[in-house]
Amino acid sequence: MKNNKFITAAVVATLALTSCEKTDYDVQFDRDTHVKIMSDNSVSTYAVSTCTGKDTSFVVDFGVAMCINVANLPGIDDVRYDEYEFYAMLDGRKVKGFQNLKDQISDRAQGLVDGNINVQLSGHTDLAVYLLHENMYKAQFFVENGDGQIFELQLKEVY
């Protein structure tokens, strides 16, 4: 019984000492302005002809690129009041919000998806760019502040 208490105390002490350790890299990662992509998203459309029985159902897989820590950039102190624009460059063109999915997803489905993402981003949907799966790794990400300064952001995580 005495050994069990000692082992338990040793495990608790070890966890207490190691669980809060952060490396300089982790701290820097938390403070940098960067992009994360939530990739496990899809919209399924089921369509079967009542006349022919032909199934024309399809699935659109997409990711939501989110700008993290935008207020750490010069000229952006408060995301509620400061002017900025988060966008992706894809094949030489600027893509914002739902632009990359407009032809793929109905307006009704866009409203549902946008509502769910809006909740996760606390109403800051301007910090999200929706990209088809095949475009997630091809896109470059930028923020332009109210003074016209443009900052390129790194994609740090796809989850």
What attributes does this structure have?
159 residues, 3 helices
Gross morphology is elongated
Strand content: 25-35%
Distance between the termini: 44 Å
State the total count of DSSP E strands. 8
**How is the main sheet built?**
4 strands, mixed
Number of helices: 3
Proportion of residues in helical segments: 10-25%
Q: What is the oligomer described by this structure?
A: single chain
Mean pLDDT, rounded to whole units? 82
Structure notes:
The strands form 2 sheets. Strands 5-2-1-8 form a 4-stranded mixed sheet, with no helix packed on it. A 4-stranded antiparallel sheet has the order 4-3-6-7, with no helix packed on it. By secondary structure, it is of the alpha+beta class. The longest helix has 17 residues. It is elongated and about 60 Å long. Helices cover 25% and strands 33% of the residues. The chain contains 3 helices and 8 strands, in the order H-H-E-E-E-E-H-E-E-E-E.
